[in-house]
Amino acid sequence: MAGHRIYAVSVASVYPHYVAKAEKKGRSRAEVDAILCWLTGHSPKSLAAVLADGTNFEDFFADAPHLNPARARITGTVCGVRVEEIREPTMREIRYLDKLIDELGRGKALHRILRA
After folding, report:
1. What is the pLDDT at residue 84?
2. Mean pLDDT across 11-19
3. How many Å apart are CA 112 and CA 116, to the nearest integer?
4. pLDDT tens per residue across span 78-104
5. Which of 53, 54, 66, 111 is nearest to 93 (CA)?
6. Which pLDDT score is estimated for 2?
7. Among the residues of 10-87, which ranges form H helices?
């Protein structure tokens, strides 16, 4: 899947969809931000800067301050594909994020989503 077109899409263009999905289910933008920060090691300030810069998904994960090692405990399916079986690293990171947002939308407690 190297070179998949999602890699060139800016995180900022998809971010409103993550927030809308969460808010539609009674969750908050702050919870979406907490997930993004937990996954990538960004602070709220650096996350805002990345979103403002229009950083694409490939660079977002490649330049993340500290990818959380607990992300390897994220399992399950997204779009019919098991995230733990995805071999391509960037696609796996994107699917980890998708899975966490899905869990938020399904009402799972934030501390459980963040594998605390």
Report:
1. 92
2. 98
3. 6
4. 989 999 999 999 999 999 999 999 999
5. 66
6. 52
7. 11-24, 29-40, 44-53, 57-62
Distances (CA, A) of 33 to 4, 15, 40, 89: 25, 9, 11, 22
Q: Kindly state the average pLDDT of the residues 5-32.
A: 97
Helices 89-105 and 11-24, packing angle to 10 deg: 20
- What's the CA gap between 43 and 49, in Å, rounded? 10
Residue type at position 93:
E
Sign of the torsion angle spanned by Cα atoms 58, 5, 100, 19: positive
pLDDT at position 98 is 96
Q: Return the DSSP state at 76.
A: S
Choose among 85, 101, 78: nearest CA to 29: 101
